[in-house]
Amino acid sequence: MTESVFRETTAEPRTQSVPLAHLSVELGHLYMEDFEAGPERLRAHFTEVRPWVEAARAAATARAGGKRARVSTCFLIDDYFTRFSTPAEVVPTLLAEAERAGLTIDYLARESGCAVTGKIPVAESVAARIVESPPPGSHGLRPPAAQTGWLANGERSPVARAPQAMKRAVGWQPPHETAARRHSVFLDVELWSDDDGDRTWSCPFLAAVWQLARLGLLRNEGEAVLTPQPHTATAGFPDRWDDLPTLLKLNDRADPFAAYRTCSVLPTRFLPVEHAVRVILDQIEVDPGALAQVADRSGKERTAVPDSVADRISYVYYAGL
Asked: Any idea which of 11-25, 68-82, 95-109, 272-286 has the lowest mean pLDDT?
């Protein structure tokens, strides 16, 4: 006797696909003080950025075998840690200075969207995917990141304890990077802070979420998160940040927002933050459906994509400002 198995189609696992460019270039991620410094500061930033954007495009074309590479640009505005001015005042100036430097911002994003988008707790869902890499020889003495809000790339120095009877006190021991090459570069990253039940996500953690979105790997129950919303030139920009979509498509002819690889052109002050981003991404269990989609599509396009998510990210740092 053959038994029939019935299954509702809604019970089938589904991962929404997203369009993919070859490269996503971040033209900047500036703080409130950069905007408060006026158009001159933005002008200086974009002047520094432009030649590196051209180099990134050339590299993407080379990886595509000389064919036209799909390249999109984006800019992230920090409206999470400090609310300042209004989109109606900030965004037109930002776009004008980029254009003055010969650059086009295809997509504009708000950093608060990396924490919560609509009713989706984006950062919280990514934090739930943290799978810590236990250092060799560790014995579970370190509390998990879910409790402490701290994530390291190796073994911390042991906590000093009073010696027990008939036992010697344990001497100081240095921290150790798990994947150290001869010498360690140990990093302990604060993921969030809690104040009377109110959680504030750290800049490195939100930047890690931002990178996952740009790589087309961010999902919530299979649905794509931080999807671009269209903008028309006649619509203008609102007076409240909350009224501005978390991800806005400014250029109708732009290539897709998400891409196989990302490149960020940033001032050198962001280097410690982005080091922390790599530590976080190395210990995130990325949605397997999203990873499979990228692998399948890149294979069909004969576009090499590193297995490591962190290795799909590149940076250009410039001094000054």
From this structure: 11-25
